[in-house]
Amino acid sequence: MALDWDRIGMGGDEAILRPRDIFAGLANRPWRYLRHEQGEVLDEWFDHRRSDRDVVIKQNTGGGKTAVGLLIAQSTLNEGIGKAVYLAPDNYLVKQVRAEAAKLSIATTDDPQDPGFVASESVLVTNYQKLINGKSVFGVVGDGRDRIDLGIVVVDDAHAALARTEDQFRLRVPKEHPAYLELLDLFADEIQHQSANAWAELQSGDWTALAPIPFWAWADKKSRVMEILHPHRNHDDFKFVWPLIAEHLHLCLATATARGVEIRPSCPPIDRVPSFVGARRRVYLTATLADDSALVTDFLADPGLVARPVTPGSASDLGERMILAPLALNPKLDSVAVRKLARQFADGDQDGDGQAEADPVNVVVLVPSDKAAAAWKDYADATYRVNNLQAGVERLQAGHVGLVVLVNKYDGVDLPGDACRLLILDGIPRPLDGVERREAVALADSSVRLAREVQRIEQGMGRGVRDSDDYCAVLLLGANLAVAIHDQTHLRLFSPATQAQLRLSRDIANQIRDLGLDAVSMALRACLGRDAKWVQRSRRAVAEVRYAEHGTVRPEAIALREAFDLAVTGRYMQAADRLQKTVNELNDKQLRGWLKEQKAAYLHFADEALAQKALMGALDENPFVLRPVNGVAATQIKAAAVQAREAAGFLSYKYNDGTNLVLGVKRLLEEVVWGEEERSDDAERAWEQLGLHLGFVSTRPEKQYGKGPDNLWALSASEQAVIELKTGCVTETIAKKDLNQLGGSVRWLNKINGDVKALPVMLHPSRTCDVQGTPPPGMRVVTPAKFELLRDAVTKFANALAANPGSWKDEQAVSVQLTQHKLTGNFFNTYSEAVRTAT
């Protein structure tokens, strides 16, 4: 008689709850044991944290987070808590998660109507957008659908989830949409009051145009805004966002650009998706989220629980990485030489003699844009973007491809083992949406922006190692990335394990500093060739590293979330008071001003006069916040009494060592990019900083007052440079409108300070004026050729000061170098040329 196994060992058994035991009970385990780190995390969650509604689980990249999340989801199902949802960033990763679940014998589905999911017998694995959107099958407040009750939501790659969640609450009215022009017309006066130049750029379709709509105008005209937008609520551009923000439209931030009008609340009203906020357990899996604040602002997570992450006892589960920044090693190394080196490693010619003496490796280059990808065209075997990324990753995982460029994909890509042995980061993504661009200007030097930048870098560096036995070499190109791994302010924002690897890599860097690419190649060969001493020291470097005991939740993030929730319920004065309480505790002036602007926005609903007074206070802290309804008078600037003294004071404050000085100068010079309109804000800020580095009083009047030039430099007591940056232009002549803009800026200076001579200056790829335009008298043009001369001079200025410890703090030493490199008050005689008119 055959045995009926269904009647053996099954009757009366309770479901297994402990995740570790669930794994142990598998008939066909995909691997013999759970990793030690996985077991530690699972036991900590089960024994001490499973009753907590919000739990952050941190493990290094490749630490097995997916299996941890799936086992926790299965445990919750077994406990009878309710349905389980596992959220992945995109459909590509959904497939990977389901494949992992199949190995663990965990039943999954990607269909919310699947009987197994409905019966709480299988885990729904889907992308973030499936749950969080205005047409969610899980139900949205007010849509009449029954809410799908959830026991647990596991959010994988929480850092990626944050960006996508914010995007789900952002309504974009594209310029082609009829509502776009209606909104511009409605707010024309207020936009022009903030910035006449921004309005002109909007009218001309300039892609650099950026115009915030003042909160008081948005609130006062909310009925008309609703009339304009509501008829389009079912339009493809609206229907997935409108139900999420419509009830809070009056509390939204609105920004006009030449691409469209962008509308979003200061915090996502995530409670519009009751299935998510009502889930009894929410588990966030993350590797690189050193700053956990956004979990509070975006997901309404409990800040006290978020600040207590679940981690393994040791952070040594990170794969092996050697991380080098060629520019930090030798400022004379150029990017072309590094690209050639990368090509050689892809071909197996690691010593560059033209003969392949080693196995060729896959080299993966992460770039932020198509423009950056173009620089690799002559070296790359393939370039992939989001639309064909999956095919590219599968090719890399299948075998040798060569040198592959991935465009704007710094997270959500797994490149284990031979799929990537040399990883190169060539730049980091820039903010592209209107609100983020404005925030980037207002918080340029704030710790908030710095933390976000470091997070993106760490995300990118994590692509090449996917488990503790994996290894990869990493090169960081450009001064911006070089600063990130050299400057202590940046370094402490990386995860503990990455910091340990950076310290080890710095020991190598110190030995090969000032040498050529041969030395870089030698170091890379030690890593990729598995040199025994490198392997031993690499493992030792992270052996005793521990995860941070507490997560970082910034006080302003908690305040922003709580203030928004108060405002939603009409308690505007309390919302303003909540923000002010945190402002009183902050030292960061830029951030204080930014928060005061939001405070003023809430005050407007209770006391309009008090709101405008608060906005004036915000301006005192941050000159780049909104200007009050009655405007603000432009302040005259005066030249420094002694240029060299001013420069030495600024450099002494800014830099603590010579390497930081050289890299800092290179970084700001790299921000002036020709032919990219979207980089105009970066270029304007870099030009302001350049003036300060050289000892000139330097400001950005157009951003501060809505009038005047992009930059204003006080060259001497009697002369000031009125500077307009048109680095994004690609025309062969200077357009009439740009000449008129420069002329208007000269008149602006004459009006506020007629005692100084205005020197009109423009950065433009051509010095030839359109025949229909009239240049202001005495106009000078900094062309790309002249800028290269300037770049060389400023670089030599920084190198000379850095060569002698502390000399950049010495007024006399700085004076000698300013004179030597023709960087004094007659600066533009050398580094610009006279304008000419087309014939």
Features:
839 residues; alpha/beta; Rossmann fold; 5 domains; 46% helix; globular
Description of the molecule:
Strands 1-10-5-2-4-3 form a six-stranded parallel beta sheet, with helices on both faces. It has a six-stranded parallel beta sheet with strand order 11-16-15-12-14-13, with helices on both faces. The protein has a six-stranded mixed beta sheet with strand order 17-18-19-20-22-23, with helices on both faces. With 839 residues, it is an alpha/beta fold. The protein contains 39 helices and 24 strands. Helix 7 runs parallel beside helix 15 (293-299), helix 9 crosses helix 10 (196-204) and helix 30 runs antiparallel to helix 31. 51% of the residues are buried. The chain has five domains: 15-167 and 273-306, P-loop containing nucleotide triphosphate hydrolases (Rossmann fold); 170-267, no CATH class; 320-543, Rossmann fold (3-Layer(aba) Sandwich); 555-621; 643-837, Restriction Endonuclease (3-Layer(aba) Sandwich).
Compute the number of strand runs. 24
Report the CATH superfamily of the largest domain.
P-loop containing nucleotide triphosphate hydrolases
Under CATH at level 1, the class of the largest domain stands as: Alpha Beta
Radius of gyration: 29 Å
Number of helices: 39
Q: Architecture of the largest domain in CATH?
A: 3-Layer(aba) Sandwich
Estimated structural class: alpha/beta
Low-confidence segments, ≥5 residues, pLDDT <50? none
Q: Could you describe the largest sheet, including whether it forms a barrel?
A: 6 strands, parallel
Tell me the strand order in the biggest sheet: 1-10-5-2-4-3
CATH topology of the largest domain: Rossmann fold
**Nearest-integer average pLDDT:** 90
Number of domains: 5
How far apart the termini lie comes to: 104 Å
Shape annotation:
globular
Percent strand equals 5-15%
Helix content: 40-55%
